[in-house]
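MODEL INPUT / OUTPUT PAIR
PAIR INDEX: 1
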Amino acid sequence: MCGRFARYSLSRELERYFNALPPSIEIQPSYNVAPTQEIPVIVQHEDARHIKKRHWGLVPFWAKDISIGSRMINARVETISSKPAFKAALKHRRCLIPANGFYEWKGKAGSKQPYFICLPSGEPLAFAGLYEIWEDKEAPPEAGPYKSCTIITMNASDSVKDIHNRMPLILKPEAFDEWLDPDNKEPAKIEELLRTRNVKELKSYPVSKLVNRVENNSKACIEPLKEAGE
């Protein structure tokens, strides 16, 4: 699974990398993104890419309340076309979730070592994501809809599997257009894209256990350990 990641690229870099319009929202760096927090996502509307905000943890449109979101932070690529929570979003509500890397833990419970995993180039990357818009019918109109998203995951590649058996599905830049295309609604075609146009070569290094606590959110979370066992 993917339960924590870092996204410290700011608006200007995201606009350039994803060829997106300038956002109307302020984007602050986060070195320790956690479920239920609001995060920037890239969506396609009328031939233009936009940077929007969504809560991490998908709430299906048919949910009774938003509490289900904390259990829907990830969507397994193997079952997204059949699971009711993701089936409609896969056809109609796909997004890119910008990141600079993600965290995984290795070892025995109680003494697990966190690792930061990113592109060898250090460039931003994009998780394949789905989003939903949930309406609380009992809330006043001014409350607005609850907008949420989930990260699609896959079996870990050779570069990650020694740390964890799953990883977020990272799309290659040449797949962005097809993934975001609202006219692309064929599940078989979408699944083929996910299977064949993902990034497998990543680099990893151990980092401080500071990242274990959500309140720790600074560059220190992604800095390599100076000494083994630090």
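PAIR INDEX: 2
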Amino acid sequence: MPIWQTSRFEIDVSQPRIMGIVNVTPDSFSDGGLHASTAAALRHCEQLLAQGADILDIGGESTRPGAQPLSATDELARILPAVRHALTLGVPVSVDTYKPVVMQAVLDLGVDIINDVWALRWMAPGSVLSGVDVVAGHGRCGVCLMHMHGDPQTMQVAPMEGEVLAPVLAFLAQRSQLLLARGVTAARICIDPGIGFGKTVAQNFSLLARQGELLRLGLPVLAGWSRKSSLGAVTGAAAGDRVVASAAAALLAVHNGARIVRVHDVLATAQVLKVLAATQAAAMN
């Protein structure tokens, strides 16, 4: 049984798992401000679980294209009330952050997963503490390593060029090998190809079509297509109207081997995955 080892839970990823997004931000690309207050964020955590989320992913800083950086102090002030509440709900809790001091603070509270768009590369100016140090220094936490070309300020101004799968695969292999060399077991590591992070529309769909090739690393794949601009590019739908397209992308990602899908629209995603599961079960009878 494939397991994603996290601080408090061993997550069975032999079946797909839904990671519900809790953006405690005023400027997220798709739902900025909707859950920025503590009360709204707490309600949203519980709503996502009621709709079928298996994991809650809490973020306090937008990483949309052009987003401005946030200090660690301000990020912690935003997320800690939601994190503390989520930790009481009996499900794995992930924090979407790239700052080592934030990682350390939330892991000290008991958070299960660090979900990092920088794949543990970012370090504060003048600091010697890296995300690799924080994760390697923890005995059990899960980590998701994502591929990003450039940074949120520049990634869509100067996206990748040419064939996309080979460099993404090489990067994720290198980052995961670095953690393995530091004593982090493979069971703790998940990889994310980084849909929309410094990639063209064509490159994003190439990653979806060839996503199965990422499985050669032997690590579970997390797919984050929810409401992304590439879906808008092919459907013409605004961010808030991409529920159907997002559910379709999640379904295709799971069909192509993803074990975790990170989504805003948990209910729709849960329904399409139940249809897929029923179809797969019928095919085995």
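PAIR 2 NOTE: Confidence is low (pLDDT under 50) at residues 29-33.
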